[in-house]
TrEMBL record:
InterPro entries: Methyltransf_11, SAM-dependent_MTases_sf, Thiol_S-MT
PANTHER family: METHYLTRANSFERASE LIKE 7A, METHYLTRANSFERASE LIKE 7B
Keywords: Methyltransferase, Transferase
Record organism: Planococcus antarcticus DSM 14505
Signal sequence bounds: none
One biological process term in Gene Ontology: methylation
GO molecular function list: S-adenosylmethionine-dependent methyltransferase activity
Protein name (Swiss-Prot/TrEMBL): Methyltransferase type 11
Keyword Methyltransferase among UniProt keywords: yes
Domain Methyltransferase type: start-end pairs: 37-130
Amino acid sequence: MAGLFPHIYDTAMKPLEKMRFEKIRAGLVRKAQGKVLEIGFGTGANFRYYQNVERVDAIEPNPAMGHQAVKRIKKLRIPMYLYQAKAEQLPFVDNSFDSVVATLVFCTIPDPELALQEIRRVSKPGAKFLLFEHVKMDQKMMGKTQEALTPIWKKLCDGCHLNRDTLGLVKQSGWDIQKVTSHYDGLFLTIECQNPRVF
């Protein structure tokens, strides 16, 4: 199923994107500035929303997703560079980026704690970190349902964890959280953070 997932991703996501995701993505991504790192660019759904940036370096570990994204780059006016790489092992030097964007990707990263450390390493002091993620819900019944469904969901959806507490992980990783906005009764969150100027 993992091999099929990149080819059906855009089709599966289209109703959600049209319903509200497009607006959420656009509002978040447009806050990125300067030199930008995108984590897990997937099929390139965020590419068209970048505006006041110098360049975007975007990573994605799944080569099939990367092939889908290449078509979207041709329509861009900003410099965009794609890398097949994992968030846990970023191919960039320390203090490289002014902004980092991650949308609907932390659910699939095998070691999110290590990924968050790496993202801080390559971010400049004061850099923005902008996330849009689905998370484990606070409601007890919904949280238990997410726990129960996660094993089969991971197999069907390229390693996606329905029960990941991404907000908690970001808090523990040392990022200064500036703003959290809940969507769909807390199933999705936008999280805006800043890299502390002193480690």
